[in-house]
Write a structure and sequence with these properties.
Helices cover 46% and strands 16% of the residues. It is globular. The chain has one domain: 3-Layer(aba) Sandwich (Ribose 5-phosphate Isomerase B, Chain: A), CATH 3.40.1400.10.
Length: 153
């Protein structure tokens, strides 16, 4: 699986998660300071979300101080369902019930142990078929509010 991983700063948590993802055998595309690029959180979120939306990555993982900024920015990209997760059960639910495709984590409040639990839950959860109607409604919102391609920068 190809993952786009981005943060607006490189920290022991981001280093740990990148190493853990590599250990699990994922193919990583790094964005922002993780790749030696000086980018702000909104730019990092946009790049990761666009990679996922275009199919250049299967899923994304984003970090910022609270995790809120990157989740807001990523969710502006049609086709993205970014979820800010502070624990494993939220991550499991985001994948199962919301079919989230971008995991957002807080640099401030996520320990390495909790990050490992969140990754375990995120990658082990399967979509809940009973939520298909809700997922279709979210996809309809994407279509309804999508800007024409020529209007996007």
């Amino acid at each position: 699986m190809r993952l786009a991983v981005g943060s607006d700063e490189r920290t022991p948590l981001t280093d740990y998660v990148v190493e853990e993802l590599q250990r699990r055998g994922f193919e990583l595309r790094l964005v922002g300071p993780l790749a030696g690029q000086d980018l702000q959180w909104a730019d990092v979120a946009r790049r990761v979300a666009e990679m996922v939306a275009r199919g250049e990555a299967d899923e994304g993982i984003l970090f910022c101080w609270t995790g809120t900024g990157v989740s807001i920015a990523a969710n502006k990209v049609p086709g993205i369902r970014a979820a800010l997760c502070h624990d494993a059960e939220t991550a499991r639910g985001a994948r199962a019930w919301n079919q989230a495709n971008v995991l957002c984590l807080s640099l401030r409040s996520t320990s390495q142990a909790v990050a490992r639990e969140i990754l375990d839950a995120w990658f082990s959860a399967e979509p809940d078929p009973s939520e298909a109607e809700n997922i279709a409604k979210v996809e309809e919102l994407d279509r309804l509010y999508r800007q024409p391609a020529e209007a996007a920068p």
